[in-house]
Amino acid sequence: AKPRLQREGSCASLHNSLMRNSIFQLMIHTLDPLSDEGRFKEKASILHKMAKQKCKDDAANANGVADKNIPNSTNVAVEVTPPMNGVAGGDEGGDDDEDEDQPLSLAWPDTNRKRLTYLVILPIVLPLWITLPDVRRETSARFFPMTFLGSICWIAFFSYLMVWWAHQVGETFWITEEIMGLTILAAGTSIPDLITSVIVARKGLGDMAVSSSVGSNIFDITVGLPFPWLLYNIINDFKPVEVSSNGLFCAIVLLFLMLLFVIISIAACKWKMSKFLGFLMFLLYFVFLIVSVMLEDKIITCPVTV
Questions:
Q1: For the CA atoms of 216, 217, 221, 227, what is the dihedral angle to 10 degrees?
Q2: In this predicted model, what pLDDT tens digit does every residue of 183-195 receive, in sequence order?
Q3: Which of 10, 38, 82, 306 has the fewest beta carbons closer than 10 A?
Q4: Which residues does residue 5 pair with via DSSP β-bridges, in sequence order?
């Protein structure tokens, strides 16, 4: 059921998309549908007062001239229409959000661009469509544990293929494994984090977008690396895993320096995400990449070897 507000009078500004979307965003972040009725009414009352004050401000800006055609009733129900893309006045991306909520369809697209995308992702989408229940369908919603576990298994399978193919490409073009890991594999494993960060950032959850990037790297180091090594030890009678790299120690030190530079850069930009900060992050990444490749190729000699 759509939320509704009760107020003493009617106001044309409430029919404005900016006002509707602002109230809806406030309700998303403040109203808990599972809370007790008393708290719900209290917060709804606050929204009611804010809407009423907005009406008065708009009337004052209009030099006190009110629309005579607007009825003055003591019990007018104002329907709050949610925005299409989670932002005020934004119809952009509304179709994309609706498509994301719809079950997956393998129908042939209409435009050439969508057809090209369809053919590219079909080898990945088709096995998922066959083996995993689409929980966006009402009849398959109860199978979400199977879909969740199956998705993890498919991620592991595709990750194995990605590492295997990257290794073969490196051997074909005489590129070392370390450089392939710093470039191709690093970019491939970060694309899912990029997509999720963009999605939550467009919804206005900037803190979640940043923390997702930081948390995913911590998870990779503390779980993603040790867990396969632990399985290898168990299978091979606890035989140690040898890790060797020409500039591993210096690369780790360089990572800590890069972390320091990132914090300084964000502080210099007054803790706000901007285009300048984005270009600065790209610059730091390329500096780290160049120095790491030079260490691996022994162009720069690391004083401490592992």
A1: 20
A2: 888 888 888 888 8
A3: 38
A4: 78
Q: Give percent of the chain above pLDDT 90.
A: 18
Lowest-pLDDT choice from 82-96, 116-130, 282-296 = 82-96
Longest CA pairwise span in the chain (Å): 86
Which residue, chain included where needed, has tokens 């005020």?
88
DSSP string over the chain: ---EEEESS--GGGGSHHHHHHHHHHHHHH--TTS-HHHHHHHHHHHHHHHHHHHHHHHHHTTT---TTS---SSEEEE-PPPSSSSTT--TTHHHHHHHHSPP--PPPSSHHHHHHHHHHHHHHHHHHHHS--TTSGGGGGGHHHHHHHHHHHHHHHHHHHHHHHHHHHHHTT--HHHHIIIIIHHHHHHHHHHHHHHHHHTT-HHHHHHHHHHHHHHIIIIITHHHHHHHHHHTTTPPPP---TTHHHHHHHHHHHHHHHHHHHHHTTT---HHHHHHHHHHHHHHHHHHHHHHTTSS--SS--
Can you give the pLDDT at residue 254? Answer: 87
Count Cβ atoms below 10 Å from residue 210 Cβ, excluding itself: 15
